Amino acid sequence: MSVSVSSFGTYPDGREIKLYTISNKKGMQVSVTNIGAALVKVMAPDRDGRMADVVLGFDKGEDYMKNPSFMGVVVGPSANRIAGGAFTLDGVDYKLDVNDGANNLHSHKEKGWHKRLWESSAEGDGVTFTLKDEEGNLGFPGEKKISVTYLLDEENALTVHYHGVSDKRTILNPTNHTYFNLEGHDSGSIEGHELWLGAARYTPADGGSIPTGEMAEVQGTPMDFTVSKRVGRDIGADFEQLQFAGGYDHNWIIDGWDGKLRHFATLKSPVSGRSMEVYTTLPGVQFYAGNFIQKQTGKGGTVYDYRCGMCLETQYFPDSIHKPEFPSCVFGAEKEYDSVTVFRFCQ
Asked: Which of 108, 183, 250, 313 is catalytic?
């Protein structure tokens, strides 16, 4: 295992943006950057051993300051949506940026963690990014100290370990927003990919993508991935939840959640033979099929567009601060945030 570092551009205040590349003995490479603690590149083998980059992204750090679709970045302090752009915690009212209809999405589109330059350090088999988030920043209480560590092993498993502390109770619900395409980042639609989810239930949402509070069974609906199927098979079905979101963009409830690392998803490409097993300690996953990827130029001049990549964003459920029936995303004081998500690439 080795880690190399190179210059990846210049942050608006003049600081250097760095790119770290982790390589294992099998030839797999993972590149991450200190802007947004982003996952920039994953070189993984297909069924014939040929390597290709299977995540969407950009060729230089400055492009991550634009990045309208949140490609590759760590989103925080709170990923996904909070209804009304406001919440009350311990009797105090907090107001957030209203940036998605009447709601808050991903904390702040321009000032969230995904646009910050993180401190960084390389280790033997990975890279750690750290960030200090000030009291009241973006409307969230508490001074928060966050770390995100990327580790690559010799079995082609990429581990993402998140840890957070706060001096006040606050919302901590980060995620990684990488778009995957197991045929290669420049290969177009992901609708032919096959997905299995170990999730018999999901959280239906209203027209603004705010969960209603219901935890509904997937059986008998287009939301059922308990048997592997093509992403595009039912995505256009006459089903209200899909019409609301323009396709799949929902939170699935991971079966048997107990805080331990659990295999909850397998994504496969019949074309390339690549597959990706995903594990997490978290209770939910936002499967987003890239329904609203804005047309933009990515790595190597590739034009990214509608459904050319898909996300599996591990998380606490959206708007859980307003839903006591959901697992709580409130941390701080005596309760530290800690989670692990693993992406294992195989053929």
From this structure: 313
